[in-house]
From TrEMBL:
Signal peptide (from-to): none
Record's GO cellular component terms: plasma membrane
Key words, A-Z: Cell membrane, Membrane, Transmembrane, Transmembrane helix, Transport
GO molecular function, one term: transmembrane transporter activity
Membrane topology, record value: Multi-pass membrane protein
TM region positions: 23-50, 62-84, 96-113, 119-142, 154-177, 183-201, 221-240, 260-283, 290-307, 313-331, 352-369, 381-400
Protein's name in the database: Permease, MFS-type
Length: 409
């Protein structure tokens, strides 16, 4: 999968090699990494159980619940370029403080909205809005003023902190599954502590006068988009979300619930370990090479899922962990290298790509899953997704090769 996607990589890779491993995390970065873990801990203590919570509080069917969840998710991802542009103007520390305050307000609204469907929906949208602002501001602050040589380490550390929260959150939430009042009380305390903690973050220092990208008007939030990594991120999450969304349904009756939970926790912990360990190597390889490796691992994982047994599903999750560890990090690093915008806005654009991929997975993947389910050939669904992991990446590079020209980023 060669072509213009590697243009300009050589200089960036040489600069990364010269500085790899230098320096340590600052106190502010360590505090922020802890915050990223705790934010996802609180979020994913609730997220896996939202469908049940909304069904009970709204007294609605799953179709209506799905519409509410879909709308909230769309708002979170579609607004990311705008919230990132807001953070660029308002300041990263202020944006992080505002986001944690919105998380706190959402938790309080969940807590006191038990008897009110309107308050429950409001709490959901407050939490999604908080996530839309926190994610790009968190990543932007983490790598603010860091030289290119340190970016792989910092981005991978931020991802690892978030994935650790994703792994631990559902376990913590399960402890309060039948007592949502206690869950939201705990979340309220957690987000209050986080909001106070973010007050003590140092404001990010301004860059040198005249240095850095120009701040564009809000109407140009997609200006300077790094097309190749954006498209690769869409494809990555289109395929990844089919694993994340449909494996639980497929595993029902094939695996014990506890066993499936352990496998998914193992997947998330694999990302926590693998990405920081491989960060330097991932930074050095070209983007097409990363796509070959990453999507190849994903294809192997999807194929293993088709076996339907505990060993096959566990092996598939391990392969998916390796593949997504490479792709999640390399796509973001490539976007940072190619974008003409600030790191914060670039992360917001990448967040939009995640949302587009997830939407496509829900629309196209769900329909494909239904076709195989009705035919009684569900293992064939995973083989079809594995085939897409092999066939779609070279087609994507061929499709985006046109806009990629020498001298353009």
């Amino acid at each position: 999968m060669g072509g213009c996607a590697e243009a300009g990589d050589g200089t960036a890779r040489r600069s990364r090699r010269t500085g790899r491993g230098r320096g340590v995390f600052t106190g502010a970065q360590l505090a922020l990494l802890a915050g990223g873990f705790l934010v996802n801990l609180g979020t994913f203590a609730v997220y896996p159980y939202l469908a049940v919570l909304l069904r009970d509080r709204l007294d609605a069917g799953m179709a209506q619940v799905g519409m509410v969840l879909g709308a909230a998710t769309l708002v979170q991802f579609a607004s990311a370029p705008f919230t990132a542009a807001f953070a660029e103007r308002a300041g990263l520390k202020r944006s992080l403080l505002l986001a944690t305050s919105l998380y706190l307000l959402g938790a309080v609204t969940y807590l006191y909205g038990a008897g009110s469907p309107a308050l429950t929906v409001l709490a959901l949208f407050l939490s999604c809005g908080a996530g839309a602002l926190y994610s790009p501001a968190f990543r932007g602050y983490l790598i603010h003023a860091a030289p290119p040589a340190r970016r792989p380490r910092l981005v991978s550390a931020g991802n690892a902190a978030g994935h650790l929260g994703v792994a631990v959150g559902p376990v913590a939430g399960a402890l309060f599954l039948h007592e949502p009042g206690r869950l939201f009380t705990a979340n309220t305390v957690l987000y209050a502590v986080l909001a106070i903690g973010h007050l003590f973050l140092r404001p990010e220092p301004p860059g040198p006068a005249g240095d850095g990208p120009v701040v564009e008007p809000f109407r140009r939030v997609l200006r300077g988009l790094a097309v190749v990594p954006f498209a690769a991120t869409v494809l990555t999450h289109y395929l990844y979300m089919q694993f994340y969304q449909y494996l639980s349904v497929y595993a029902e009756g094939r695996l014990a619930t506890a066993g499936y939970g352990l496998i998914m926790m193992g997947y998330a912990l694999g990302l926590v370990v693998l990405q920081p360990l491989l960060a330097g190597w991932i930074a050095d390889i070209g983007h097409p090479t990363a796509m070959v490796i990453g999507f190849g691992c994903m294809a192997a994982g999807m194929t293993a899922f088709a076996t339907g047994g505990p060993v096959g599903v566990a092996a598939g999750a391990l392969a998916m962990s390796a593949g997504t560890a490479v792709l999640f990090l390399k796509n973001d690093l490539e976007a940072l290298a190619r974008s003409r915008r600030s790191a914060t806005v670039t992360f917001g654009q990448q967040r939009l790509a995640v949302g587009v991929g997830a939407l496509l997975s829900g629309v196209l993947g769900g329909r494909l899953y239904g076709v195989f389910e009705r035919a009684g050939l569900l293992p064939g669904f995973w083989l079809a997704v594995a085939a897409q992991c092999v066939l779609l990446p070279p087609l994507l590079l061929a499709a985006v090769r046109g806009p990629c020209r020498p001298g353009r980023r």
